[in-house]
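note to self: dont lose this again. the chain is below, predicted strucutre after it. 302 aa total, dont forget to put it in the shared folder this time
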Amino acid sequence: MVHQLLIGTYTGSLPHVDEHAEGLLTATFDGTAVSPAGVAALLENPSWIAVGPGTGTVYAVEETGPDGSVTAFSREGGGALLPIGRECAGGSSPAHLAVHPSGRFLLVGAYGSGTVSVWSLDAEGVPLERTAFVQHEGSGPDPERQEGPHIHQLSVDPVSGDLVVVDLGLGEVRWYAFSEEGRLTLRPDATVATGRAGPRHLAFHPDGGHAFLVNELDSTVAVLRRGADGRFRAASAASTRAPGADGPNFPAAVRVTGDGRTVLVSNRGDDTIAVFAFDPETRALTWLSENAVPTPVCVVVL
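---
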């Protein structure tokens, strides 16, 4: 089966990345290899993207300045993107966003300010008003990269319905109870601490009992298993890099195909998308291939 991919990138140089791409990219994935990428929209540093359920609305952050933005697109014939809305992201250097499974809320995480914002959406997926705001506090064990909170991902636990927040700066993954009105309440007993590994993004397996956590600071992807108490714990881990790879590398995105058999991880530095096979019985990841893509930050399987 062939999937269309939308790939987030950086278009300008920042302290952690050099410019390579022209904007939001599009490509195809046949289950093993990724095709050469083309430009879908000319945005500045569209480092993360998400697609709304039902509406198919595409959302992209622009990671710029102290007050970044979020742009909403409708998908037209042939996969073309048409802008339908634009809002302030609600924090400095927004690095991630996601859409609540209900399609009623947009979840935005700001790396620079270490903040989480929840926005209500109208029937077409256009942002309306903010319903929740959370400020993380503290630091992690790495004084250079974890001197303060740095939100890198927001997602919704498919079993509990909680909001899951990955904070690279604190070295933690936190679970928040999510109300019908879009309000948040921390569940401290569910926190997963990974420390110096630098957790960046998490993807749930379709079975709901496993998740994959990519770590930016040590170039690994960890397999997490849900216990009888509903909490996740580490089960195994693998390098995101090909054997023999060297030089600086910063993994970014992790994705699982719909059948749960394949895991994709984007590598900045190596400039590749790594492909793994996953065995739920052994909870092991097996390296399949790597595919060249310029500065791949975000991968969405459509």
